[in-house]
Design goal:
Layout (H helix, E strand, L loop, with lengths): L1 H25 L21 E3 L5 E3 L4 H21 L8 H22 L6 H25 L4 H22 L7 H26 L8
Antiparallel strand pairs: 1-2
Helix pairs in contact: 1-2, 1-6, 2-3, 3-4, 4-5, 4-6, 5-6
Amino acid sequence: MRYRWGCAAWVVGVVQFFVIHGIAESAWARPYSWARNNISDLGNAHCAWQPDPEPRYICSPQHALMNTSFVALGVLLAAGVALTGPLWRRGAAAAVSRWLLAGAGAGFVLAGLAPADVHENQHVLGALLIMATGNLGLLSAGAGLDLPGHLRWATALLGATALTAFGLLLSRHYLGLGMGGMERVAAFPLLVGAAALGVRGLVLRGAVPRP
């Protein structure tokens, strides 16, 4: 039962994030762009011109709702890591991966509590926990998950893709995707992986591992 609650936490956390993301971006008077705008722009508390790292005007009427969603996502991701113990193998790889993924959950909470235009340093730390720590956890989950080989390889590939995108984002090489697009390639694989594992655990009766 704990395992299924953990899977449900992952699914609910990711779904509510994308639903709230859509609500928050639709509230912008000046159209929000997945290519030009950071995810964090939706949580900025003030309307202002932002020159760095790419020039853009930010005004998010639903910033409080978006920041609440960040916090909820972080709590539910961490809860899922804690409750899905049977999903993981015994040993150091699984333990390290789970700690790193829990760190990503803490990063989302921090990002929500510290909007980028209010507490920039804390927000940047939250982003690093998500896209560095979390993606390292996703990569190492390929060795730590107690799943068939093709699923472990797919999880590791998501982590490798996200880490590569994070490096490109930091070096401002967007490959035609824009700043916001590359950030999403760096941040969303973690959410895709969590949601996929959660759905699998809830839907497939035989997917519940034995402790």
